[in-house]
């Protein structure tokens, strides 16, 4: 089977399995197996796949047909300026989360706390873009922390990582607190796509309640963990802007809601005075 034939077969099988973006996902998987960027598949020599490559492609396409996310299959996701290792113990970093990175880099800070760090994508992206800054990432999942540490090492960023349940054991003051917490309400979980519902860690997706539990904790402890003039940036579900803002305002903060590139509410920024 040649590269062109492999692309057609992969797209057809994934399409038959009901995968949205079948051709795109097939190309991402094949490109990872061939260790090239997906765009190069169209211009590289249309050679025959080796037996090993064919076997790996067949297994990977079967996994995607079962709705396993591409990032878990190939083992990585490109996010902001770097490539992050992804496993079934972490959320797949989403492009919309880059809205939080852009907002953070418009602020003045030299220390950052990332709670619920997962792959470390937010923290590592921020520290890589701001050399000399200090950062700490926390997560309740030891498995996720191992992934984050590995990503920091490979990308060349120095960061501290610790197991913690939100502010538990966190004493140092920070100029910036960031988080992409579990914000999907329990009643919304059944409406998720199989790619998310069946494969990503539920602990990172939902609080098992109204989707606002983490924000209540973050808002309540923010001022005590921020240096004077510091800010909080939290990712939100696109219908949560008003509710999350109200939680921070009740804690004494001023807020603004930041939209992503699709125009949907995506980040709440909060800061305190006095």
UniProtKB/TrEMBL annotation:
- The main enzyme category here is transferase
Positions binding S-adenosyl-L-methionine in this chain are 116-120, 139, 166, 180
Give yes or no: UniProt keyword Flavoprotein.
Answer: no
**The protein, known as:** Release factor glutamine methyltransferase
One Pfam family recorded for the sequence:
MTS
UniProt GO molecular function: nucleic acid binding; peptide chain release factor N(5)-glutamine methyltransferase activity
InterPro entries with a match to the protein in the record: DNA_methylase_N6_adenine_CS (IPR002052), HemK-like (IPR004556), N5-glutamine_MTase (IPR050320), PrmC_N (IPR040758), RF_methyltr_PrmC (IPR019874), SAM-dependent_MTases_sf (IPR029063), Small_mtfrase_dom (IPR007848)
Q: State the EC number(s).
A: 2.1.1.297
Please state the gene responsible for encoding this protein: prmC
Q: Where is substrate bound in this sequence?
A: 180-183
Give the GO terms filed under biological process for this record.
Answer: methylation
UniProt xrefs under PROSITE patterns: N6_MTASE
What does the function comment of this entry state?
A: Methylates the class 1 translation termination release factors RF1/PrfA and RF2/PrfB on the glutamine residue of the universally conserved GGQ motif.
Q: Which UniProt keywords apply?
A: Methyltransferase, S-adenosyl-L-methionine, Transferase
Q: Where in the numbering of this chain does the Release factor glutamine methyltransferase N-terminal domain appear?
A: 5-75
Signal sequence interval, chain numbering: none
Q: Which family does it belong to?
A: Belongs to the protein N5-glutamine methyltransferase family. PrmC subfamily.
- Where would I find the Methyltransferase small domain in this sequence? 100-188
